[in-house]
UniProtKB/TrEMBL annotation:
Catalyzes the conversion of 4-hydroxy-tetrahydrodipicolinate (HTPA) to tetrahydrodipicolinate. It comes from Pseudanabaena cinerea FACHB-1277. InterPro entries: DapB_C, DapB_N, DapB_N_CS, DHDPR_bac, NAD(P)-bd_dom_sf. This is 4-hydroxy-tetrahydrodipicolinate reductase. NCBIfam families: dapB. It catalyses: (S)-2,3,4,5-tetrahydrodipicolinate + NAD(+) + H2O = (2S,4S)-4-hydroxy-2,3,4,5-tetrahydrodipicolinate + NADH + H(+); (S)-2,3,4,5-tetrahydrodipicolinate + NADP(+) + H2O = (2S,4S)-4-hydroxy-2,3,4,5-tetrahydrodipicolinate + NADPH + H(+).
Length: 278
């Protein structure tokens, strides 16, 4: 069975990382969205094969290719409002985003692992090009609600740590979501985790990585997981745990499609799904 779009006005979309687990779900979501039209599929596997056949939804007449720049150039030539969704790898994401912006293609990025300097450089590049770009450490609305709940709880607790658990093929650690959560808590202007004793690690890294206002993040990587994050607050006599668990990648698709629609109206880089939810 093939999915097809039927509306006259459609957003041309290129998916970079199309043959990965997240990319395959995105292909299915784009193919079913009535206001979007898949125009390119970039991947490292199944080169030359129809991406619809690869992901199991029938022929889409879009072959898998590994030449991103050619696809971006073609998309920009055929439309004024093309979008690139990128879910590839931290080692290539910076160059992918710059290439997309250079061709006038609006990036929607789910790949994490960019440094603060890289994000700042990309923001400046997008500003100069007046091209919208959304970098979302997480596409789940549930994650945004979790972070907002944590901000509310942080007003009443001085002690907090974050545990993030992902599948063992995730390349970066800590996750972008965990870093973003720690940054959001740090922006509240309060100090966290005042020392009670002089700690000593007998194994380096046993207490996790420190982010923002002394907030520790612990990363687990195991097969059988998709993505889970726990934010644990503590005070005398009690703990409060706020948890989000993604059991299937389909939970991210509503956020992906929202970002594709929202990025068209932007003229600069936006970091975080919460910035475009309103």
């Amino acid at each position: 069975m093939s999915y097809s779009n039927t509306t006259t006005v459609q957003i041309p979309v290129v998916v970079s990382g199309a043959t990965g687990k997240m990319g395959r779900e995105i292909i299915k979501a784009i193919a079913k969205a009535p206001d979007m039209n898949l125009v390119g599929a970039i991947g490292r596997q199944h080169l030359g094969e129809d991406i619809g056949e690869v992901v199991g939804i029938g022929e889409l007449e879009i072959p898998v290719t590994n030449n991103l720049e050619v696809v971006l150039a073609q998309a920009a030539q055929e439309s004024q409002l093309p979008v690139m969704i990128d879910v590839t790898h931290p080692s290539i994401i910076y160059d992918n985003i710059r290439s997309a912006i250079a061709y006038g293609v609006r990036p929607v990025v789910g790949t994490t692992g960019l440094t603060e300097k890289q994000i700042a450089d990309l923001a400046l590049f997008a500003d100069k090009a007046s091209t919208g770009c959304i970098i979302a450490p997480n596409f789940s609305v549930g994650v945004i609600l979790m972070q907002q709940a944590a901000i509310a709880a942080a007003r009443y607790y001085q002690h907090v740590e974050i545990i993030e658990l992902h599948h063992n093929q995730k390349a970066d650690a800590p996750s972008g979501t965990a870093i973003k959560t720690a940054q959001m808590l740090s922006e509240l202007g309060q100090a966290f985790n005042p020392a009670s004793v002089q700690e000593q690690e007998h194994l380096a890294g046993a207490r996790g990585a420190v982010c923002g206002e002394n907030i520790r993040i612990h990363s687990l990587r195991l097969p059988g997981l998709v993505a889970r994050q726990e934010i644990i607050f503590g005070s005398m006599g009690e703990t409060l745990k706020i948890e989000h668990n993604a059991s299937d990648r389909t939970c991210y698709m509503a956020g992906v499609l929202l970002c594709v629609r929202k990025v068209l109206a932007l003229k600069s880089l936006v970091y975080g799904l919460e910035k475009v939810l309103a």
